[in-house]
Amino acid sequence: MVANVVHLDTAQSPVVADLHRCFQTQRAAFRAQPMSSADDRIAHLQKLKEALVRYQDRLAQAIAEDFGHRSHDETKFAEIMTSLEGIKYNQKHLRAWMRPEKRHVSPLHMPAKARIVYQPLGVVGIIVPWNYPVFLAVGPLTAALAAGNRVMIKMSGFTPRTGETFKAMLAEVFAEDHVAVFTGRGEVSEAFSHLPFDQITFTGSTQVGRTVMAAAAANLTPVVLELGGKSPAILHESYPMADAAERIAFGKCWNAGQTCVAPDYLLCPRGRSQEFVQAFTAQVSKMYPTMLNNPDYTSLINDKQYRRVQSYLEDARAQGARIVEINPAQEDFAASRKMPVTLVLDAKPEMQIMQNEIFGPVLPIIEVNSLDEALRFVNERSRPLALYYFDYNDARADYVATHTHSGGMGINEVVSHVGIDDLPFGGVGPSGMGRYHAREGFLTMSNAKAVLEKPKFYALRFFLPPFNKSLHKIIKSYLLK
Questions:
Q1: Does residue 102 form part of some domain?
Q2: pTM above the 0.85 mark?
Q3: Which residues of the chain have pLDDT under 50?
Q4: Residue 59 belongs to some domain of the structure
Q5: Catalytic residue chosen out of the listed positions 74, 79, 253, 260
Q6: How many whole angstroms separate alpha carbon 37 and alpha carbon 281?
Q7: Which of 74, 226, 357, 367 is catalytic?
Q8: Final residue of a domain: which of 374, 390, 424?
Q9: Count of domains observed in the chain
């Protein structure tokens, strides 16, 4: 097999040429040291952990500036603290994960020993989205470093201040031939996905995910795609409405709904939607008595995203939906990218708001007659990144878990399953492929090499041609068992 080689085009811009140069530098560095020790990897993770602690305020400020406004507390909890916990978990379990794994050898192949050796893949690429630019960079980076890889990271062009701050942070602790960060849009993004990485991890929209996968296919580069989608929340008729409102409001309001696993729509028992509206309104008003100048309430990232979400609401209104804005202080949001938390009643499947991932503080509500009707509604659509079911009955919850497909599932919770260190994270079908976090992240970023070792005594010589009656007897005896 001939290894992929990146050919530099003299017509390339300096930044794209630098991207190619860095890739070749990392590939050469990996060839020089293809298998780092557990001690080295734990030390690399420690550097990352200490850098995050040192840069926490600078990162929070950069994210707030990129968004127009985002709570520093929200950033530190959702992005910094959660990332640190993931790093600690990898450090704790890394030695056990790296240990060669013994496998069974059948009598037919004895004497022999079989094992799996987990090797680094080589140079991996990570493409980061704008909504959680630190957490969604550090998560796959942690798995890549734990597995012993070299890493190139492409930050989102929608969060330029965060990208530059993150780049400066990692440049302090890692040499360019180990971890390198690139920023910018357009030609940089295009060139990055076309590099012949040993793996690419992409988090973002389904549309861009298809483009990344097509580019990777030209190099037979495996991909991990986390693509989001419309994650449903299903409410059982027996569930206390105040509990549902509290938990769903947390996931829908966090980062102003700009979360890939945010509850995207609610399937509510028929006749109870107004009760949910009242409980949800009370909960949101308690969390955000004001919104416009509230340091705890986040803006939409940019004008394009703001207009997109507003267009969904206009389409729903034109098709007869009832729009309920939760605006406790009756503030005027006209000159702001902040928007009030909004419920859409009488939502219909053909509305744009039910056809597209919302990624904003808007929750459509559809009434259903039964749990089975709710499950049919979900199962007739693309498999989501997350599914949330609210019911304190274990048997029904297990039934929902086994009769639906989603990347992850929360029972009586939303969003927070992503922060559990020992659970893998990823999608299924249109919501993505592959997993990272937990041991699955280490496995995803590793090559599980099968190794079979034979001793000096070579039993297979008795099976070599010319085939004779003794072999025929052995085969016949084996096949008749």
A1: yes
A2: yes
A3: 1-10
A4: yes
A5: 260
A6: 54
A7: 226
A8: 424
A9: 2
